[in-house]
Design brief:
Distance between the termini: 18 Å
Number of domains: 1
Strand order of the largest sheet: 2-1-6
Helix content: 10-25%
Oligomer: single chain
Order of helices and strands: EHHEEEEE
Number of strands: 6
Mean pLDDT: 94
Largest sheet: 3 strands, antiparallel
Structural class: alpha+beta
Low-confidence stretches: none
Number of helices: 2
Strand content: 35-45%
């Protein structure tokens, strides 16, 4: 289970998942290009309802939220 302050790696399926959730395809591709494959620290975790689906997000930077199902725990040291 991912928690605040965990290090995670962002999935290569980020762009596709954002489009599935109804985000703009161009913005989704841009987010994918910036974040996919990066190792980041989870700053916050929150839930939103999108088309009757509860979706958990990880805040990884100011105003940058990634679906939690696109994050995997990064092994520590």
């Amino acid at each position: 289970m991912i928690a605040i302050n965990d290090k995670v790696v962002i999935s290569q399926r980020l762009g596709k998942r954002l489009v599935e959730l109804g985000f703009d395809p161009i913005e989704s591709a841009s987010m994918h290009n910036v974040w996919a494959g990066r190792i980041v620290t989870v700053l916050d975790i929150w839930t939103d309802n999108i088309d009757n689906e509860r979706v958990e997000f990880a805040t990884v930077d100011l105003c940058n939220e990634i679906p939690l199902d696109c994050c995997s725990l990064w092994p520590s040291g």
